[in-house]
Specification:
122 residues; single chain; Alpha-Beta Plaits
Length: 122
Amino acid sequence: MLTLIENALENFLDEDDGQAVVMLNLLRFREDGGRERYMEYLAIATPIVARFGAEIVYVGNGLPALSAEPGQAWDAVALVRYPNRRAFADLAMDADYRDKAAPLREAALAEAVLQPLQTASS
């Protein structure tokens, strides 16, 4: 699994055009206090994220899906804007993030999708 993530990150950086990127986080919490642990994660991660010129733009609770297959509804979503792809990679490798924030995120989530987004050009 780690190799898949490393390969995806390598491809992500290889295709970097220097433009801002927004990470869509689709979140499914663990039943045993996952939502609360995620709030702890946000409190620790927010100042770390800011050091890389990024900002948490939106965090919201999921409502029942209007159009989805079973199992496609999410407990919450988060949008985090990074000035460029390198800023995201640098955050992911940062010792403070990896040691203090990432373990809380992992403990909070039963499942997650991290989908990079860029503004569509017309």
